Amino acid sequence: MSKKLKILFMGTPDFAVASLASIVKANYEVVGVVTAPDKPAGRGRKLKSSAVKEFAVLQGLKVLQPTNLKSETFIEEIRLLDPNLFVVVAFRMLPKVVWEFPEFGTFNLHASLLPDYRGAAPINWVIINGEQKTGVTTFFINEKIDCGEIILNKEVAIGTHENLGQLHDKLMEVGSLLVIETLQLIEQGSLKTKKQPEVSINKAAPKIFTETCRINWQRSITELYNFIRGLNPFPGAWTMLESNEGKPMKVKLFDVEIFLEKHTQPIGSICLEDKIMRIYAEEGYFQVNSLQIEGKKKMQTQELLNGFKFQEGSRFL
Fold first, then answer.
1. Each residue of 3-37: pLDDT tens digit?
2. What are the φ and ψ backbone dihedral angles of 281, each rounded to 5 degrees?
3. Quick one: which of 4, 152, 249, 307 has the most CB atoms within 10 Å?
C-alpha cells in the first residue's frame, strides 16, 4: 500500500527551484514551502524574494519565511500544515526539533557523491580540485552535517573545460530527478538506506569566502585553470593588478582559455595583442575572454580594451 505524502519543502536559491518544480509537476501534495526572509538588494536596497519564494508564489503555495527555526511560532506553523515528510534542497542547517518532526523523516539533496565533499560549496570544490566526476545524493538528515544515511546517488561526469555555472545547472536537473526517485521509494515503502563511513573525509567542501577566491600565481597553470573555472561565474576568482602608476587594482577573471607552452615571460605578466589578453603562468598562459576591473561591470576583454589601457609592465600579483 502506497503512502500518502504531504510534503513541506525547504530551499532558497535557483538550485532548489528545479526540485520543487519537479515535485509540483509530479502532482505530489506540497503543504508549504520554507525559504529565507526577503533581503535588501541592488542600489535601491529594495527587498528581494528568494528564487524559491518567487516560484512558490506563482504556484499558489503557502510560503513560510522564519528568521528563527527554533521559534515556537514556526514550530506551530509546521504543526498546522501537518506534513509527514520534509524535503530540503540548498537550505540552512535545521535544528533537531524541526528535522525529526515528520513521520517519514527529512531528506536532503546534496550536490556531491557523499561522503565526499560534505559542506557548503561542493560544486566549487570538485572543479577547483580537478575532479573528473561528481554527482548528487539524497540522504536523511541527522545531527551531523551531510552525514545521514544515504538513500540514492547519481554520478555525473565533469567536462574538462566545464565551469561552475555549467556544472551547477547540470547537477540541478539531475538532482531534481533524484528527488522524485527518492519520493517514489518513500511512497512505495521500498526504501533501503546506506550508512556513511564514520571516518573523516579529506575531500571537504567548506564555505567560499572572498579571501578563498584570491589567485595564487605560483601554482601550476592547470591548478590555476581549475581554480578560475571553479569560481566562474560566481563569486569569481580575483587577483591584484600592479602597474607603474597608482595603487594595485582588484580584477576578477571569468572565462579563460588555457595554452600549455614553454616561455620565458615573468609569472603574472600581461601581453596585449590585437585586443587579445594573455596572462603568463608556469608552463603556459591564459587567454582572458571576460573579466571585471574594480569599479566596472563584467565585460568581454575586447570590449574592455576599447576604453581601458594597461600600463606597460603591468602584471598580476
1. 899 999 999 999 999 999 999 999 999 999 999 99
2. -135, 175
3. 152
